[in-house]
Amino acid sequence: MKQDAMDPVDTRLGARLAELRAERGWSLGELAERSGVSRSTLSRAERAEISPTASLLNRLCAVYGRTMSQLLSEVEAEPALLVRAADQRVWEDRASGFVRRSVSPPHAGLRGELVEGRLAPGADIAYDRPPVPGLEQHIWVLEGALSVTAQDVEHFLDAGDCLRLRVWGPTRFWCAGDRAVRYVLAVVLP
After folding, report:
1. Phi, psi of 142, deg, nearest 5
2. Alpha-helical runs (H) found in 47-143
3. pTM of structure
4. How do residues 131-185 score in pLDDT, each as one tens digit?
5. Are strands 181-188 and 135-143 parallel, antiparallel or unpaired?
């Protein structure tokens, strides 16, 4: 479903995705083969005709060797040392019920970042691979209940619980309770 007005973040993101593909000299077909995403979806994302889902961005980040925050920070104007709460970038995957707030000031050269995640009741996000193999994640639940599956092990987290893991394969985040879950995700590059 195309929105009436293009979102400026989606427009910049689409342009950056097209740049990354062009830098490598790949056709849409080559990128589709590497990412497992259809050519038409890739083309529509690059032209900002669709707002990419978290799963789509994760697949592209894996191909390009970036975390999602790194990719999103690349479409920002200038990196800042301080980002006020009101100015933190929020991105929403409406299809899955996932809202992502980039808490850390964006900077492509840093190895760690903080992200606030919110999942609606019943929301379920599955990633087929990490954006960077061996990515370290610390998941701290602030409100609600969250189920995280990594390496075929399911972890149930309640408010206050924190899970640390290294991500090598598929992961799944599921809002396990009857109310929304809010959590902090600390991401550290290997």
Report:
1. -95, -40
2. 54-64, 68-73
3. 0.67
4. 888 999 999 999 999 999 999 999 999 999 999 999 999 999 999 889 999 999 9
5. antiparallel
175-185: pLDDT as tens digits: 988 999 999 99
Distance CA 134, CA 150 (A): 12
pLDDT digits (tens, 9 = 90+) for 68-103: 888 887 887 556 788 899 999 899 998 899 999 999
Which stretch of DSSP H or E encloses residue 129?
Answer: none
Q: Are 76 and 89 in contact (CB under 8 A)?
A: yes
Both structure tokens of 2: 């195309």
Q: Count CB-CB contacts under 10 A for residue 37.
A: 19
Residue 4 clears pLDDT 80, i.e. is over it: no
CA-wise closest residue to 26 among 68, 50, 37: 37
**Ramachandran category for residue 65: left, alpha or beta (phi over 0 → left; psi -120 to 50 → alpha):** left
Round to whole Å and give the CA distance between 12 and 141: 31
